[in-house]
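request received
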Amino acid sequence: MKKEITEIKAVDGYFEICLKINGLTKNLKVKNNEFLLDALRRYGYKGAKKGCDTGDCGSCAVLFNGRPALSCLIPAFSAHGAEVTTIEGVGTVQAPHPIQEAFVQAGAVQCGYCIPGMIISAKHLLDANPAPSEGKIRKYLDGNLCRCTGYVKQVEAVKLAAKKMRPD
Amino acid sequence: MNNIKRYSFPRTPKAALSVLLNKKANAIAVAGGTLVARTLPETAETFLDLKNLPLNRIKKQGGDLVIGATATFDDIDNSKPTRSWAGGVLSRAAARCSSQLIRNMATIGGNIARPHSFNIFPAVLLGLDAEVKLLTRSGAKTCPFSGLYSPGIAPGRDSIILEVIIPARTKNWVCRFEKFAKTEASWEAYLTLFMGVKISNGSICAARVIVGALSPKPFRAALAEQVLTGARPNPGVIEEACLELARGLDAARPHKAEEFKKEVAASLLKRFLESLGCSGGRKPARM
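response:
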């Protein structure tokens, strides 16, 4: 029978947590006042960006147990046992994900700071809904702020990605 | 969070309550953990994470609509039972809270656990005569939402919210939720308004007008409701109800400078009542 409650304890202000990052099991040592975004970046996952640090801009978005979430609002220790996917787990320069290709082809990237978060949100949408309406795309991207563009190219990029990802 | 020494994640509400009631643990209960995580009291030593509790189901039960405490705003936005209840007002309210990334995390239980003017759901739940089922030290207990913040209940301190129950009688009410804020994604609204009526033979047999965001707890505009109950929504009745709503706001507004809120609330109520169609206006849009 599963234990009704699991508890981990901090030693000298640090928690030892075990979680899956991009499909690989990792053990991280995190401070009790640290947020997941800072812990991820400290361990080399720098794709998630630190923008507002208050949950407003979406540049820190990661998939947390399968859903896009704001890693700047998640206490790092509470990721113990979780599955996290960062932009590094979506695609690489050598083998980009179709959404990443679409963002490049649609010219949706200017400074690029918001793009990892946007791709995480877009991936979640397209995995669940292969042919989303423009309204749905805009709704799913509404937490990802971009200060360079007017969002038109990013919406086009998600439409293009949907086309690329749909089986013929 | 500097003093957090333990991270507990219970799998049952009973286990969660046992941690909460253990005064030595000095626990703080967190559900979705959106705004709360950054504003935890420094005295908390145990972070009690409720997000893994199996309480996220949304279902119809005995004619009522039952929403589990850990159902996220996104779950409520996209669930079939909530979309079909009272014109989808619960889904509509959920969809108007902040951004999608927040809606993926924030839960209905967390949104109602403590009174706060930011909260979206209290106005809707008060309007739909909701009840809240809690697990307390003496067992499960159901209380009307209007009594949730009474002394002795204290969800998140002495009890755990299990589910929200929307009574069957509200299923076919015509309802609307309006949020008046700086931007659609703003956490803080200047004003939220829940309006709901039950219409029978062209007359309003039940009316709810709830004002949120002006104070930590939403309040009923009782005089406006009185004007509407039993009346046909003709221009005279609509005008009188709007006037009473404005008077109700006058009494509640903390700052006299916020005169515009009175105008906004009255206009939103007028639009809603005119859309009912009984006074020759448009039919209410199905949400």
